[in-house]
Amino acid sequence: MELTASRRTQAEPPPDEKIEQGSSKTLPMVVKIVALGTIGGLAAALTPALLSQQRWAFLIAIWAIVGALVFVYATKRYIPAKYLLPGALFLVVFVVYPILMTFQLSTTNFGDGTRTDKETTIARIIGGSAQQVDGARQFGLSVGQAGTDYTFLLVDAETGDVFAGTADGLAPLDAGSVTVENGVVTEAEGYTLLTKSEINTLSQRDGPLDGFAVPTEGGVIKAQGFQAVELYTPLEYDQATDTITNTETGTTYTPVQVGDRKYFTSESGERLSNQSWGENIGFDNYVRAFTDPRISSDFVGIFLWTLAFAVLSVATTFFLGLLLATALNDDRMKGQKIYRSVLLLPYAIPGFISLLVWSGFYNTEFGLINDLTGLSINWFGDPFWAKVAIIGTNLWMGFPYMFLVCTGALQAIPGDLKEAASIDGASGFVNFRKITFPLLLVSVAPLLVSSFAFNFNNFNAIFLLTEGGPFSPANPTAGGTDILISYTYRLAFGSSAQQIGFASAISVILFVLTGVLAAVQFRATRALEDVN
Amino acid sequence: MAQNSPGKVTATVVSPAGGGPVQELRGDELKGARWWAEVGWRHIVGVVAIVYAVIPILYIISASLNPLGSVASTSIIPSQFSLVNFEALFSDPNRPFARWFLNTLIVAVVVVLGQVFFSALAAYAFSRFRFKGRRGGLLTLLLIQMFPQFLAAVALFQMFTQVGEVVPAIGLDTMAGYILLLLGGALGQVWLIKGFFDSVPKELDEAATIDGCGHAQVYFKIILPLVRPILAVTGLLSFVGVIGEYIMASIFLRETTVKTLAVGMYGIIEADRSNNLGVFAAAAVLTALPVILLFQYLQRFIVGGITSGAVKG
User: Fold this and answer.
1) Which of A215-250 are b and which e, b meaning 16 or more Cβ less than 10 Å from the residue's Cβ?
2) What's the confidence (pLDDT) of residue A89?
3) CB B282 within 8 A of CB B85
């Protein structure tokens, strides 16, 4: 009805058509101009800050977005692009780009203890060994920032000469380019000066100024409060041979690989320092995941449980859902609506609430389940029972969905098929097995596959129930109920040493596995045909 | 024409249960053993299922009314009635429930509106235009949807840390940043919505085009109004998804004032699993109730949405 009505108004335009046409063209134009103007304005407003901090990638990204928007919307061409671009931009910036970045991270050993680059680490090691000697040079200190790099701006307390000090060394600064007041630099060309509180923040443990040291001949310059002092150190780094030499004892230290990182170690195996640094390590993380005996045994175990968890979750929910749908799908039954409304409840409750409530049910002493059944199982203390608990909870949360899906599919199966079969003498069960079930399976198969893919990465079901536990004291990184995604989470964001590079490698492996699942789903849904 | 319209699809897939008077009469005719064999057992299964479905929910309600608020003192049937847990929710500044509720609402509404709007735009292009890369684009979307955003969490964390250094308003620990992050799924509903657009006959837009409508007018004035109910259900399903989003929120929203319900309530129960049950349950009741009511209200459409989603992949 509505359709014909709207069609008629289009077919018989009102007399004041020209005015209508005019106004209906102005509004979109105004919206377009305002929107493009706002976005362009935002980009322009951000530009100075990005320029001064030298964040080129960010700068290029936002202007590329503005360019794309203007290109698509300012002309009358590229009509499909006008509809696709806004969503696609979000997709590229917040999904595709992070995926690529994850791959890049997976080829590094980035993590706790390797957050600094090699140069800074060497400066720290040398600086850490330094001691103050009599008659050392003293400097007034300010810290300048250029982009993401920090520089010590130093004023010699005796001579008044001004220097710029970085991990590369000390370089004299032209007196004309800086302003010196009371023995410290207060302004410097090309640098943004940090305030004292900013310096304090950045100097905290693992901050960019933590252990910052400027190598000089025969020593290093380090900060002492808001002053800097030249310290004496016997250690010297030689870039050509990539070694650190102790000039007093003559011992040389070379980088030796331990696990995913390197330490400066002497020939006798003595480590100069426990500090290491971040670097590209190619595919070592992947090699490690499959060959390091402890990790690979964790990995295989977790992978198998991930599969089992996903398969069992789908199988149990589907079975129960189908059973209920079959039982309740009979028009002679009264109150079907009530049954259906109540059975929908577990599906309607936000998942995190259900999971947290159920986690309380498994309490050994007071939990509802041991209470009702009279058992005294230590649910989350035993890997087997913890797995049972997870599957059981997922069953409660998932069966209404399968029930709804199966009910819909059952009702779509034509009744005369069943009638014909029962006239031919098929009993109720044979009828179900030979006619109903195969037909139903055809229509719900795609859903079963996507449900499998969902559970394969169902982080909440694991983390909010058991947090991946129980853990054995010998192995705090892989718990008894960890699936791949919760294992990855702990590697990257857990409280113990973060292994971000390695976690990224596992993420990439998960991407590939999920992609394989996607391919299977493509086949199951015959999506390829649908698109043509 | 009517058969193809989305509303009709829903209606055929989920015909209202219970049946008319004729069917009820037939049910009543069955007596004794035959009734039990053909209909009665179905009720037994149904009642058992209802008990199974409802026990945990009763337990939450009972716990929320239990003034002691501990796991040990809570049973399925409430023994005491008290609203202290609800009062506690709104009085403790360490767990600003009202604030979390508001945060969640803001995040969910913005993300859902954005997602439905952007998805519907893209779905229109995929449904109505033929262009180079259309097939590839659709398949890419299907593939990308399979990846949980969390898999790139480390990279996203670094990205937002860096962005926050330049524009603190959208960095870590801001709702705006979290909303942007979730809008990475802006095209998440394209396939579903495209399916519904496909069922709107093309003759309609052709007629409108002949009458002088541009492509934008066809979209906003003709197609969108037709699929509005379906967009509402799509929105509701994604709304529930956003409310339940825990993992990214736990990484990105660490300060009490910007937390969403999922993160905040996890904090309540995690702080003291056995004694904070009452407060947690009260929060759970207040959070779940509106969603449950919405679900019951839109039940028919939801089932339709799920099943046609299945057909369309």
Assistant:
1) bbeebbbbbeeeebbbbebbbbbeeeeebbbbeeee
2) 92
3) yes
Q: Is the domain covering A290-531 a CATH 3.40.50.2300 domain?
A: no
pLDDT band at A206 (very low <50, low <70, confident <90, very high): low
Query: Token pair 């010196």 is at which residue?
Result: A180
DSSP states of chain B: -GGGSHHHHHHHHTPPTT--HHHHHHHHH--HHHHIIIIIHHHHHHHHHHHHHHHHHHHHHHHHH-TT--STT--SS------HHHHHHHH-TTS-HHHHHHHHHHHHHHHHHHHHHHHHHHHHHHHH---TTHHHHHHHHHHHHTS-GGGGHHHHHHHHHHHHHH-GGGSTT-HHHHHHHHGGGTTTTHHHHHHHHHTS-HHHHHHHHHTT--HHHIIIIIIHHHTHHHHHHHHHHHHHHHHT--HHHHHH--SGGG--HHHHHHHHHHH-TTTSHHHHHHHHHHHHHHHHHHHHHTHHHHHHHHHHHHHH-
Contact between chains at A21 and B217 (C-beta distance less than 8 A): no
Confidence band for B307, pLDDT divided at 50, 70 and 90? low
What residues have CB less than 8 Å from A485, skipping those under 6 apart?
Answer: A457, A458, A459, A462, A510, B148, B150, B151
Please state the length of chain A: 532
Provide φ and ψ at A263, rounded to 5°.
-130, 150
Distance CA A435, CA A438 (A): 6
Give the closest residue to A510 by CA, choosing from A306, A361, A329: A306
Residue-range domain boundaries for chain A: 20-105, 118-281, 290-531
Parallel, antiparallel, or unpaired for β A184-188 and A178-181?
Answer: antiparallel
Q: Which long-range contacts (CB under 8 A, 24 or more apart) does B179-182 make?
A: B179/B107, B179/B110, B179/B111, B179/B114, B180/A90, B180/A94, B181/A94, B181/B149, B181/B156, B181/B248, B181/B252, B182/B107, B182/B111, B182/B149, B182/B242, B182/B245, B182/B248
Average pLDDT over residues B267-283: 84
pLDDT tens figures, A236-265: 788 788 888 887 787 888 888 777 778 888
Whether residue B24 lies within 8 A of chain A, CB to CB, comes out as yes
Residue A144: pLDDT over 50: yes
Where exactly are the structural domains of chain B? 20-84, 90-312
Lowest mean pLDDT, pick from A91-100, B47-56, B153-162, B225-234? B225-234
Nearest to A490 by CA among A501, A503, A481: A503
How far apart CA A494 and CA A481 sit, in angstroms, is 16
Residue A500: list chain B partners with CB under 8 A: 154
Q: Please report residues of A whose CB lies closer than 8 A to that of B167.
A: 46
Q: Which of residues 26-65 of B touch A (CB under 8 A)?
A: 26-27, 30, 38-39, 41-43, 45-46, 49-50, 52-57, 59-60
pLDDT greater than 50 at residue A5: no
Is A409 in Cβ contact with B307 (below 8 Å)? yes
Give the closest of A336, A357, A412 to B17, CB-based. Answer: A336
Distance from CA of B102 to the nearest CA of A (A): 16
If you average pLDDT over residues A27-37, what whole number do you get?
84
Cβ count within 10 A of residue A192 = 13
Distance, CA of A174 to CA of A180 (rounded, Å): 12
Tell the CATH superfamily of the B90-312 domain.
MetI-like (1.10.3720.10)
- What does the block give as tokens for A408? 């819909």
Q: Which two tokens stand for residue B41?
A: 């057992």
**DSSP states of A304-354 as a string?**
HHHHHHHHHHHHHHHHHHHHHHHHH--TT-TTHHHHHHHHTHHHHS-HHHH
Give tens-digit pLDDT for A293-304.
878 888 888 999
